[in-house]
Amino acid sequence: MKPGNFNEYKDMIDLTALIDFCRDNGKLCHYAKGEAIVGQGLVGKYFGVVESGYFKYTTITTDGAEAVVGFAFEGECVCDFNNSFRGVSSEVAIVAGCETAVWQVNFNSIKDIISRLKGLYDSIMDVLFREIYHRHLEIYRKSPTERYIELLNHHPGIFDIVTMREVASYLLVTPVYLSRIRKNLAKKSDE
Fold this sequence. Notes:
CATH superfamily of the domain at 9-118: Jelly Rolls
Largest sheet: 4 strands, antiparallel
CATH topology of the domain at 9-118: Jelly Rolls
Number of strands: 8
Distance between the termini: 32 Å
Number of helices: 9
Strand content: 15-25%
Shape: globular
Radius of gyration: 17 Å
Oligomer: single chain
């Protein structure tokens, strides 16, 4: 099960050539829960398409806690695109959130395809920037409750896949605070 198109890039850009290449030429790899396809501080070597399960994009906070900054679900691409393309260390880890299968190819083969498809790199970077900038602004524009409601409206099945702790981290609240939000909303709907 997947929560719709979680990542908006799928609606903004046609990545069919990359996805088809990955599925046709890639290797189906399996990752155990907690296993990383990319480690924070390492250069990402792979581009993948999630077949089943999900990956979470995480970073380590200054106090050593893991913060969830994104997800890749079934049918979505998984990689640290910008840093992998430039061959620099990733600022995130991309970790399997459960038993996960992914079609993956070496990132250099994707770079070759992107180089041949005129304008694709610029289109991808533009879409990624817009998606990240939108998320950044939403953190300032909306309260945690509003962000939670919006997440549920767009991805009602998210709790069927992702833990409450991961959703709380993604929303920048503690699990206790998220629990309080959920209780308050349930109370309001009962009134």
